[in-house]
Backbone:
């Protein structure tokens, strides 16, 4: 039985009698392979913000070890409470470069997690792994749980990488990944939304600064193309991780969503996005499927409870979204911009 099957009706079970000053207890979900670590209060009214500030080193160590921590039972069940809680993290801004979806703010650094239609699945990914700027931490808060499903699946990117065949892993390690996006009012997102400007010259400047090829076709259509590594070493643990959007942005992801067969051919200019190996060669359907299967084998699901707060190491842990029924409100905040080792030491 894989993780997905085990966790459909999982109940938290005590990990060990590890109790911090009779205030919190740490648990795991049955069959979760340690992701997420579940932290619960033993008393009512525990201030999670104050507790984290007092146990900062412990929380950081647990996050690097497990990849994600679910804080349950701390009653952070409104946008205002979540916004206040977020003040215990760095307020350094993170530019949202090359946007892949609209981002709607509901507080200072708090956003609606997604506006994607509720009947659709959002595939596994790490936030902004395709970009040149991303946050080290992503925090989800459940204001209202869906009536059915609506889970936020998570997967350890270290284990996802280990699931890939040595040949495919080495291919991505050697070549990296090329991203290509077609931006227009009718395909994907308008370039004005992606770049947050109506000035084509500003778009060209930003692209040139980030080694992104950009080609305008008329005033409304823009194609951008750039290359990045597919595998990263974690800046603290040194663990190698699968950290990219090669699966999420690949054409076969769209094919599956709209019901096309792998052998069908859609004109390249009609694809909102696609991914390639770094030498420009195509990622085959078999290779795409291998990545998908790796995510599926490592995927962990749990049902949200109102007031839940899920803290993820964004580089170490991927996330997605299950379809759902009923009203659902999950808000999110992304913090602590990634810095290359040389930058972090300055």
Residues:
């Amino acid at each position: 039985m894989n993780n997905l099957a085990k966790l459909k009706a999982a109940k938290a079970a005590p990990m060990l009698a590890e109790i911090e000053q009779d205030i919190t207890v740490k648990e795991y979900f049955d069959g979760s392979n340690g992701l997420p670590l579940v932290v619960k209060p033993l008393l009512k009214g525990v201030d999670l913000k104050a507790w984290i500030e007092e146990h900062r080193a412990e929380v950081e160590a647990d996050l690097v070890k497990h990849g994600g921590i679910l804080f349950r039972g701390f009653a952070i069940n409104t946008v205002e409470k979540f916004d206040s809680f977020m003040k215990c993290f760095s307020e350094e801004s993170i530019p949202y470069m090359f946007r892949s979806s609209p981002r709607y703010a509901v507080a200072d650094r708090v956003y609606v997690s997604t506006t994607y239609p509720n009947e659709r699945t959002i595939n596994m990914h790490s936030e902004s792994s395709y970009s040149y700027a991303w946050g080290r931490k992503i925090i989800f808060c459940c204001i209202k749980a869906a009536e059915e499903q609506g889970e936020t699946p998570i997967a350890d990117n270290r284990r996802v990488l280990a699931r890939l065949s040595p040949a495919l892993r080495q291919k991505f390690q050697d070549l990296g990944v090329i991203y290509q996006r077609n931006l227009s009012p009718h395909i994907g997102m308008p370039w004005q939304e992606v770049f947050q400007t109506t000035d084509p010259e500003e778009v060209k400047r930003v692209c040139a600064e980030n080694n992104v090829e950009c080609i305008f076709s008329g005033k409304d259509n823009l194609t951008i193309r750039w290359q990045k590594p597919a595998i990263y070493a974690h800046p603290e643990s040194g663990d190698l991780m699968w950290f990219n959007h090669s699966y999420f942005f690949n054409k076969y992801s769209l094919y599956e969503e709209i019901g096309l067969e792998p052998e069908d051919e859609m004109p390249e200019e009609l694809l909102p996005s696609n991914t390639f190996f770094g030498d420009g060669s195509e990622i085959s359907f078999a290779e795409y499927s291998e990545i998908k299967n790796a995510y599926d084998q490592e995927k962990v699901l749990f049902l949200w409870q109102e007031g839940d707060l899920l803290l993820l190491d964004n580089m170490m842990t991927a996330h997605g979204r299950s379809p759902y029924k009923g009203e659902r409100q999950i808000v999110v905040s992304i913090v602590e911009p990634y810095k290359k080792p040389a930058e972090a030491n300055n």
The longest helix spans residues 285-298.
